[in-house]
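Hi there. Long-time user, first ticket. I'm pasting a complex I've been working with (about 1215 residues overall). I'd like to know whether the download I got is complete or cut off, because the file seemed smaller than I expected. Thanks.
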Amino acid sequence: AGNKSIVVSGSSKSTMKVSGRVHVDAWGFDHDENINDIAANDTDENNRLGFRRLRFGVKGKIKDNMIYKIEMELAGGNASEFRDAFIGWTDLPFLQEVLLGNQKRPYGLDHLNSSRYNVFIERPFVIEAFNEDARRLGLQAYGISNDQAWNWRYGVFNGRNVQDEGNYVGDHLQLEIAGRMANTLWYDQTSGGRGYAHWAVSGSHSDVSSNQDEDEGAVAESRFRTRPEARTAGTRWLDTGRIAGLDYYNLLGLETVVNLGSLQFVGEYQSNWGERDGAEDIHLHGAYAYVSYFLTGEHMPWDRESGTLGRVTPFENFWLIDRAGGGKAAGWGAWQVAARLSYADFSDEDVQGGEAESLTLGLNWHWNTNARMQFNYITGEIKNRTDLVGTGNYDVYGARFMVDF
Amino acid sequence: AGNKSIVVSGSSKSTMKVSGRVHVDAWGFDHDENINDIAANDTDENNRLGFRRLRFGVKGKIKDNMIYKIEMELAGGNASEFRDAFIGWTDLPFLQEVLLGNQKRPYGLDHLNSSRYNVFIERPFVIEAFNEDARRLGLQAYGISNDQAWNWRYGVFNGRNVQDEGNYVGDHLQLEIAGRMANTLWYDQTSGGRGYAHWAVSGSHSDVSSNQDEDEGAVAESRFRTRPEARTAGTRWLDTGRIAGLDYYNLLGLETVVNLGSLQFVGEYQSNWGERDGAEDIHLHGAYAYVSYFLTGEHMPWDRESGTLGRVTPFENFWLIDRAGGGKAAGWGAWQVAARLSYADFSDEDVQGGEAESLTLGLNWHWNTNARMQFNYITGEIKNRTDLVGTGNYDVYGARFMVDF
Amino acid sequence: AGNKSIVVSGSSKSTMKVSGRVHVDAWGFDHDENINDIAANDTDENNRLGFRRLRFGVKGKIKDNMIYKIEMELAGGNASEFRDAFIGWTDLPFLQEVLLGNQKRPYGLDHLNSSRYNVFIERPFVIEAFNEDARRLGLQAYGISNDQAWNWRYGVFNGRNVQDEGNYVGDHLQLEIAGRMANTLWYDQTSGGRGYAHWAVSGSHSDVSSNQDEDEGAVAESRFRTRPEARTAGTRWLDTGRIAGLDYYNLLGLETVVNLGSLQFVGEYQSNWGERDGAEDIHLHGAYAYVSYFLTGEHMPWDRESGTLGRVTPFENFWLIDRAGGGKAAGWGAWQVAARLSYADFSDEDVQGGEAESLTLGLNWHWNTNARMQFNYITGEIKNRTDLVGTGNYDVYGARFMVDF
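Hi, the file is complete. Here it is re-exported in full:
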C-alpha cells in the first residue's frame, strides 16, 4: 500500500490505535439429571460452538491530556454491545488518571485481568457473580506510587449493566462506591520480573433500589448469578434471583499472587453482606485458588501499574513453517498447566442461589505473544439451589482458540 | 509502534480517515402531575444516565473523484444504527458535489450543525419535530459560490428513517424534494471570522402515503413528534400521531445568525402546511431564538462552505496537569453562556400534538478543541395535547461530557 | 493530517488493513396474483430501497505466520451481523493456509466470487438455496499448486448460520465436510490474462439433526430456500421448509468459465441428494449459465489463487470533472452487458419447495476500479410450490450503486 492509503485519525489533535480480539470456543456438557432443573429449557445443557469474543475498538489521546476509548463486542451477532467506552484525563495532580464512562469495577483480580491473559477460559464463581460482566457506568480514578509498589483505583458507579441498553433509566441512582488498593510487595528486577508477590484489598458499598418490578423504571440490581465457570446457554446455574427487600450490600475482597519463575500461586476471597428491609440480613461469599506452571520455562508477567497479569511471551513461537527462502523452521511455543479450586456459597436464609464447588484442570498452549489455545476440564457440584433437588454433579470440557491484535 | 503496525486502507486507490465521538449525558426531570399522562408508562419521567452518542466511522476518497462514508451509532447497545452512510462524487460540473445514501435533509440550521458544535445539549422543538433524526435515504447536491458568499443543497429523499432497518419497503415511495439556499452576507476576514451574518431559506414538499397501518407495506410518514429538548425515555411529550388523511405537506424554514465577536444571535422559524383528504388542512409551526456569549473572549466559528457552525478553539486549553519535565501548567478553557427561547404549536383542528414553550439556560465549558462539558437548565410548559389534561409544567436539568476524535 | 494522527494497530506484532463497502439498491416488483400467496404478508411484494451491504472490517497478519479478520455487516440497522470472522495460519507445510471461524463454504463459484465483482446483482437460485448466506463456522484449508494451475479448499463446517447469533447451541453437531478442486486449464499470460478457461468440481456431505422443533436445542439445518434472484422482503419465494426426516444430504457442484477477451461464458450445475428416515429420498437440483461482454473492451480478470473472478479495471475512469488546474476531463468508464438463464427444481416427492426458471438481463457501468452501477431486468416463473396455485409469473427491475474501499 502506498503513502496515500495510510489511515489517519479524524482530528489532527488526536491519536488512534485500533485493536481487537477473536475468541472461538467449544464446550461440551455432561451432567446428572438433577442439573436439568436449572439448565436452559428444563432439559440437558446443550453443547456449544462459536464466538465468545469478537471485539474491535479504538483508543487514543486528545491533546493536551485527555484519552478516549470505544470498544465493540460483536460476538452476539444481532445483539452487539459495547465494552470499554470512556473519556478520560491523564497527568492530573493528586488524582493521576480519571476515566468517565463504561469501565471495570475495581474488585476481583480475575475480572481486572484481561481475558487475553487469564489462565483459565472462564472466571471463577465468586468473581463473576459479585461483579457480573464487570463494567459499569462510572467515574473512577487510577493511581500508582512513584516506586510502582502501590497502585489503586476507586470511584463511583451506577449498578446497572448498560452494555446492551446504553443508558440507565430510573429515579433511584443505585450508586456504588468501590475501590481497590494493591501492593506489589516484591518484584525481582534482575530477572525481569520472574519473581514477584502481590496482595490487594478491595471493597464496595452498593445502594440498591427496592423496586423489584422490571416494568417500572429502575430495576433492582440485587441479583447475583453466574455460570458453572463454562459458557452455558441462557440460564445461570447459580442465581439468587432479585433478593427481596435488599437495601444495600457491602463487599470485601482479598487477593494474593506469588510468582516464582514458571510457577504461580493465585488466590482470592470475596464476602458480601446484604442488609434487607423486612427480612433477615444475608451473607454470601466465595473463594478460589489456583496454581499454574510453564513446562517450557516462561513466566506470567506482572503489570505493576494496574496490579494485574501481563502478556506472556513464549521463548520460541509455535509452528512449523515453510520459509520463503527455502528450508523449514519449527518451534513449540509455550506450554502451561494449571489447576483451580473454586467454591461459592450464594445460599443464606431464604435466598437459595446455590452452593457450588469445582475443580478445573487447564492446559494453555501459547503460540506467540498474540495467539494461544486453552483447554479446560471442569468437574463440580451444586446444591442448596432453588429448583434443584438434592445435589447436581457435572463435568465440562472446553477449548478456546484466541488471537488479539 | 513500529512502521509495520501502521494501519492502511483496503485499497491503494482509496484513502481513509477514522473518527468518532463519545457523549455521556445525565438528565434529571421535575414536573407536575399533568405531565404523567404523556410521559413513559403513565408515570413520572425517570432520570437518565448514559451514552447519548457513541460513534465511530470511516470516510475517504476514491480515485478519481468519489468519496464514501460509513458512521455507526453504538449508544443504543444491542440496537446499533448507522448515521451518515453514503457514496458521492466531487468536483462535478454544475452540481459540484452529489451524495447518495443516508444523509441529513437540508432544513433546520440546528440540525445541520454537528452535535459536536451545537450550543445547547438538545435541539429545539420545531427543528426536531419537522425533521426527526434528520437523516434520510436520498440523493443530494451540495454547492457553493466562488466567493463563498452563497451555498446551497437540494435533493430528493425517501421520507422514512431507515437507520434501524436499513431499507425502505413499500410501493408508495413517499418522496420528498427539499433544498436550502444560504447566504453569508457579511464575513469579517480581517478578524479571522469573528464577525459575520448569515441568513437562509429552506423548504420541502413531502408526498406521504395514506396507509396508516404499520403492518402493511409502507407506513405513512405523517407524524411529527419530539421530546422536551431533553432526553426522555420512550414516549415523546409532543406527538401528533400519524395524521389521518395527510396527503402531502409543505415546509418553509427561515434562519438567521448574527455574530459579533464573542456574542451570537441565532433564530429560526419553520412552518408546515399539511393537505389532507377528507379532513381540514392543518398548519403547524414553531420557532426559537438564542443568544450566546463567551466569557473568555472566544467566538463561534462559521463554516461558509456549509452554512453551519464550526469548531470552537479555546484561547487556552483547560486543566492543571503535571508536566513530564516537572512543573505544572494551568489553563481555564473557554466559558460560554447561552439562553434560548423556543416555541412550537403542533395542534390544529383535530390534530392535537401539543403546544409548547420553553426557556433553556446553558453553560458550556470548552476544555480544548475536542472536548467540552455542557450544562442546561430547562423550564417549559405544554398544553393542547391529546391525553394531557390542562397545562403541564416541567423543569429539567442536564449535563453532558463530550469528546470527538 | 500530521504524523501524530497516523492510525496504528493495537500490537507491534500485528498489521492491519481496514476496508469496507457500500451497496445501495433499488428494486421494483411486478407479478401476477398467484405470487401473492408466497410473498410477504400474502399480498403483493413491495418495492424496496436501501442498503444491501454496509460493511466495515479489519484484517491483518500476526507474527510469525498467523492472520485474522473481522468484518461487520451494518446494512440491517439494529440487526448488525458479522461476516468473515476468523483466525488463520499461513505458510504451513502440506496444508498451506488454514482458517478457523466464520468463512464461506467451498461450493458455488457465484458464492465464492465477491459481491464486489459478481456480474449480476443477486446470485442464482441454486447457488443461494444450497448454500444460504454461504458462511459457516468451520475449519478450512486453502491450497494452490506451484504453477497456479490448480487450487483447492476443503474443510469441516457446522451447518447453522450463526452470523446473527454468534454461537451454535445443540448436542447434534450437524457437521458438514466439503471441498472444491479447481483447475485453470488455460491462462494467457501474454495478454495479461485476457484469455483463460476454468473448471471445478465441488461437493459436500452434510449430517443433519432430526430435530424439527426450533424451541429445543439444535434446529435441523434441512431447509433450502432462496429469493427470486432479487431482494424481496421477509419470505423466500422458493422454500422447501424443514424437510421432514432428512438424515443427511450430499451435494455435487460442477462449474466452468471460458473467457475470450471481453467475452465470458460461465455455467454451474448443482445436484442435491437427500437421504430421509421414514420417507422417500429426494433429489433437488439447479443450474445457470451466463454470457457477459464488455462494450468498451475490458475483460473480467481471473484470480488463479482462489479460482474466482477478480476486480475489473476500466480503460478510462468515468466522469466529467472540473480539474483543479482548470479545464475539464471526461471518461466513460467501462460498460458491460450480460444475460443469464437460471433454473432450479426444489420440488420432489412430498417436498414442494418450488420449480423456477428466470432470465436476467444485466448492464454494468464500471466507473473506476472501486465503483460501479448495475442494472438488472429479471423475468421468471415459479410452479410446483406449496401454497402456490398454478404458475406464478413475475418481472423485477433492479439497480445498484456500489463502492468498496
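A couple of notes from our side: Chain C touches chain B through 53 residues (CB under 8 Å). The helical segments of chain C are 109-112, 125-129.
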